[in-house]
Amino acid sequence: MKSLQITLPADELPRNWLNLAADLDVPPPLHPATGEPVGPDDLSPLFPMALIEQEVSRQPEIPIPEPVLEKLSRYRATPLVRARGLEEALGTPARIYYKYEGVSPTGSHKANTALAQAWYNAQEGVKRLTTETGAGQWGTALSLAAAQFGLECLVFMVRVSFEQKPYRRIAMQTYGARCVPSPSPDTAAGRAALARDPDTPGSLGIAISEAVEVAASDPDTRYALGSVLNHVLLHQTVIGLEARRQLEIAGERADVVVGCVGGGSNFAGLSFPFLRDRFAGADLRVVAAEPASCPTLTRGVYGYDHGDTAGLTPLMPMHSLGHDFVPPPIHAGGLRYHGAAPLVSHLVERRQVEPVAVDQVEAFEAGRLFARAEGIIPAPESNHAVAAAIREARRAAEEGRERVVLFGLSGHGLVDLAAYDAFLDGQLRRHALEEAVVERARASVRPVRG
Amino acid sequence: MKSLQITLPADELPRNWLNLAADLDVPPPLHPATGEPVGPDDLSPLFPMALIEQEVSRQPEIPIPEPVLEKLSRYRATPLVRARGLEEALGTPARIYYKYEGVSPTGSHKANTALAQAWYNAQEGVKRLTTETGAGQWGTALSLAAAQFGLECLVFMVRVSFEQKPYRRIAMQTYGARCVPSPSPDTAAGRAALARDPDTPGSLGIAISEAVEVAASDPDTRYALGSVLNHVLLHQTVIGLEARRQLEIAGERADVVVGCVGGGSNFAGLSFPFLRDRFAGADLRVVAAEPASCPTLTRGVYGYDHGDTAGLTPLMPMHSLGHDFVPPPIHAGGLRYHGAAPLVSHLVERRQVEPVAVDQVEAFEAGRLFARAEGIIPAPESNHAVAAAIREARRAAEEGRERVVLFGLSGHGLVDLAAYDAFLDGQLRRHALEEAVVERARASVRPVRG
Question: For the segment B23-70, what is each residue's pLDDT rounded down to a tens digit?
């Protein structure tokens, strides 16, 4: 019996993050007021200097600090698993592997960067972290990391999620974080939103504004972001570095690497090490799976746009559906972002990454098939990667060709089962993007010069 | 940096279960009507012959079938982790390790036996499995295992849980199982219960009766039990076999092994390999942590009692609070059982295992401390083991002595966060057992002869 799980010996845990920004010339973010490239001074009220340096670093590898490595070693390396049950269910000659981040304490990949960010903040004397969270995955991971390094944590959680999805709120409180529904009366941005509409369900845009305001006005508090930025993607590369080595141990070479994209950090974490191999001549494809209802990479416009709804953040060079685009309330809440990480956008623009859009009904059908064949019920976000991997495996079957398909299973769905209930009840709807959204984005997104 | 997680190479996965029954002379179960020892013929309408043979086997080791090994290898070996964060929080000279079963697809140890039971049933041509479930952990694991081996699955879920705790019901349905609230109109036992009280919240006793009735009346259906019986405990010994080897790799020897006990399968799974070492002269203690509100091992009466509330199952030699005892509705639903596995009871009776009772408030305080120090939010059941391990570590600190404490973290609490909400809100109550319960049990439990 050959184990389906490929384990990585503890002494082979990655000791460096892989900085793919060193291989690329991504245009810089611009200050929203001046239109000039953003400098360290613009960012220092929000982030510690070590993370600002990582944001602009051109070093190909960056060492992982020992204390971060130690905390990561509690749940890493995560399993790489041969999906033999899925292969049999599909009748495919493809060999499918998944890299499973659901074994982390919070059940997704988010802890990988939360632990790193919390440590760098603690090193620079920061006392408190603040952030926003939608469904709560990121807020939970940051609360965990803050507890690990003795920091306070204040999370602004979109009010409708705070009220309807209590589980992750409770997890944050168990870790000792303060979790407040946004908009809150604690900030000017929150008070303004409440004045406009006392019954507002809140939005990620308002929650960002609240967290940024708190960080900017309190010298002991810094802001933390769970995706999009270069340093966040950097911290996730442990996923792909482990997977690459585990495949090697299994005697395999990936032909296709598949990840799901919201902001892009999970996708980047898995794929960036393989993309560096591709730049060096490796013959492999990289596929980014996004929701058809929020198809940033497949239908968005490439150019400078704001990262937030209110237009307060720097202008980022990325694919965008327009910073005022409000995606429909699909169940993969972590993929509902109007833009994508500048690094990922740049790779799509350079045709190094193939984006595909997956409807949520196809995604949940894939998730159900995967659950029955492999045992794990995937997170709704991960279902998009499962669906795209199944497409690859089916194509291999049609062509009668062997192929090694690696995909990222970014988390389990045990806290998201209500979404499966809706799916099993036939209540999930397909959402098509209106062309008007793209036209509006085309008008508002600024072109990238050079 | 030394990894906090001790990994086990895939080629060292246990290939045999450890059958501690071979080392002991546990009295046999008795037929409820005749009072004579139960034979294979009595059990064959309910269980496949291979499991009946395991139930009475005197072999010290039993090989794990290859197809079961393969499915187990998706998530096993589970992590053994050095709890350095907890050690620091406690300021103890003890070195604490936990064996973490929460990385399984359903988030607890239950899949270990579910996969084995489903395979043996499939081998003997069974088409459908049926069982009862309270909060849903066991029903979810059996649904997963049935899907893995092409079996149908019918789960009777206690109605009040079916309605109030939808998550695990949805998980079962995602795996393709049929999950019905019990009492149901589908069985005579269910109809009788509904006739008595149409609004009954149901009970585990009624649900057992329904599942047993379906299995006994349909030749294609067998019944599966998630704890208590010898073969179930046997299948869980992979936990302790791995942990023993992982400790060895870490260069450690356990001084104390701690597990939580409901029916006893998780406790047995971790501790039985260490108990065999103890029988061979190893100097170690084994502690069984149970809830103070359902203190079977510390205050129950040792003797023959029924496994179910209705008195239909064989009489088992065990510690019991009386088969009509209804434990208070504490949040660790998996520990609310009036009896304990005959093997575990026998070990307590022979003073090989030290039982301790832990109040649920102490248990959740331990769980919160663990979550902040180690990152994982434990299942409410597991909190009892955490609390007992913390007592051992505190004692080591008082005595100023080194000590290696190993405890079982049987699952994560991500689907049980409502219990943490009640705890954080100060709503959890301490429950003391009334002496009258013990007196009643003393009158009804039959003495073990010989």
Answer: 999 999 999 889 999 988 999 999 999 999 999 999 999 999 999 999
Mean pLDDT of chain B: 95
Say which of B10, B174, B175 has its CB closest to residue A3: B10
Residue whose pair of structure tokens reads 């080595």 in the numeric block: A245
Question: Residue A16 forms beta bridges with which residues?
Answer: A63
pLDDT of the residue at B206: 87
Residue partners of B186: CB distance under 8 A and separation at least 6: B180, B210, B214
Contact present, B227 and B133 (Cβ < 8 Å):
no
Q: What is the pLDDT of residues B208-245, one digit of tens each?
A: 889 999 999 999 999 999 999 999 999 999 999 999 99
Surface of B (150-179) touching A: CB under 8 A: 166-167, 170-171, 173-176
In total, how many domains does chain B have? 1
Pick the residue of B167, B175, B364, B370 with the most A CBs within 10 A to test the interface with A by mutation: B167
Token couple for B330: 């504490």
- Copy the structure tokens of residue B250: 């870490």
pLDDT over 60 (residue A450): no
Q: What is the pLDDT of residue B350?
A: 97
Confidence (pTM): 0.97
Considering the domain boundaries, does residue A194 fall inside one? Answer: no
A interface mutation test: which of B15, B64, B73 has the most A CBs within 10 A? B73
Q: Which domain holds residue A82?
A: 66-107+231-442
**What is the residue type of B176?**
G
Residue A422 at interface with chain B, using a CB cutoff of 8 Å: no
Reported as a single tens digit per residue, the pLDDT across A64-112 is 999 999 999 999 999 999 999 999 999 999 999 999 999 999 999 999 9
pLDDT digits (tens, 9 = 90+) for B408-423: 999 999 999 999 999 9
Is A162 part of any domain? no
| Residue A330 pLDDT class (50, 70, 90 cuts) | confident
A88 CB contacts (<8 Å, ≥6 apart)?
Answer: A373
Determine the distance in angstroms separating the CA of B62 from the nearest CA of chain A, rounded to an integer.
Answer: 17
B414 touches chain A (CB under 8 A): yes
In angstroms, rounded to a whole number, what is the distance separating the alpha carbons of residues A388 and A395? 11
- The predicted pLDDT at position A449 comes to 76
- Is residue B47 in some structural domain? no
- DSSP helix/strand/coil, A37: strand
Nearest Cβ partner of B420 from A4, A81, A170? A170
Task: List the one residue out of A227, A140, A149, A213 whose CA is nearest residue A183.
Answer: A213
Q: How far is CA B164 from CA A133, B135, B159, B180, B261, in A?
A: 27, 9, 8, 14, 25
How far is it, in rounded angstroms, from Cα B132 to Cα B144? 15
CB B165 within 8 A of CB B159: no
A91: domain CATH number is 3.40.50.1100
Position with higher pLDDT, B308 vs A139: A139
Residue A366: closest C-alpha in chain B: B174
- Asked if the C-beta of B73 comes within 8 angstroms of chain A's C-beta atoms, the answer is yes
pLDDT attached to residue B450: 57
Contacts with B175 from chain A: Cβ below 8 Å: 371-372, 377
Encoded amino acid at A182, one letter: S
| Residue A193 Cα, gap to closest chain B Cα (Å) | 28
Q: Nearest-CA neighbor of A92 among A384, A391, A376? A: A391
Tell me whether residue A329 is exposed, middle or buried, using C-beta atoms within 10 angstroms of its C-beta: 0 to 12, 13 to 18, 19 or more: exposed
CB pairs under 8 A between A and B: 163
Q: Is residue A349 a part of any domain in this protein?
A: yes
**CB proximity B405 to A under 8 Å:** no
A238-267 average pLDDT score: 97
CB contact under 8 A, A167 and B417: yes
- C-alpha span between A269 and A267 (Å, rounded): 5
